Amino acid sequence: MALVLWRLVLALVFSCCAVAVIAPRQAPAADLPASGIPTSEMIVSLDQAAVVKLPPNVATIVIGNPLIADASLQPGGLMVVTGKGYGNTNFIVLDRAGTVLVQKIVTVVGPPDAVVMYRGIERETYSCAPDCERRITLGDSAVYFGVATAEVNSRNGMSAGAGPAVK
Asked: CA dihedral in degrees (80, 66, 89, 138; nearest 10)?
């Protein structure tokens, strides 16, 4: 009995060692991009913005896919990255000589406070912070998206036509 138990423990130890040997590992530093600048990642929620501090000698900002994320340069060496659509893209920051100063992968994810409701194939999104209200989000069904957009446009049109309050 003890011999069987000992063999079982030994087999378990060897199997753990085998898993550790074949487990995926982080790429070595030699696998840097051609620019030699490491690529980091940032996560932005859809319809949200994030601020990135840039080096002082920035001349050009390149966005891989502006349908996923957009960026604008602000005074003081700040760049605002806004999530426009779901997925991954990148941005590259260059100086006047074309040297890569910064490169990042941008991942745009869904809003953290969203509740998604499916009614068959129809999808509706609600923002639930603290109460649930309609939210216009990419991926919602055309009918739901259209009704919510029409309500927002109607409200904005009424407020724009109202003019300043009379004293």
From this structure: 100
On whether the pTM is more than 0.70, the answer is no
Taking only Cα atoms into account, the Rg of the chain, rounded to an integer number of angstroms, comes to 25
pLDDT, tens digit, 9 for 90 and up, residues 72-102:
988 888 999 999 999 999 999 999 999 999 9
Asked whether 111 and 97 are in contact (CB, 8 A), the reply is no
- What type of residue sits at position 77? G
The H or E element containing residue 94 is strand 87-94
Pair 152, 160: CB distance under 8 Å: no
Concatenating the DSSP letter of every residue in 95-162 gives -TT--EEEEEEEEEE--TTEEEEEETTEEEEEEESSSEEE---TT--HHHHHHHHHHHHHHHHHHHHH
HSE-CB for 108 with a 13 A CA cutoff: 23
Q: Which residues pair with 42 in a beta bridge?
A: 106
Is it true that the peptide bond before 130 is cis, omega within 30 degrees of 0? yes
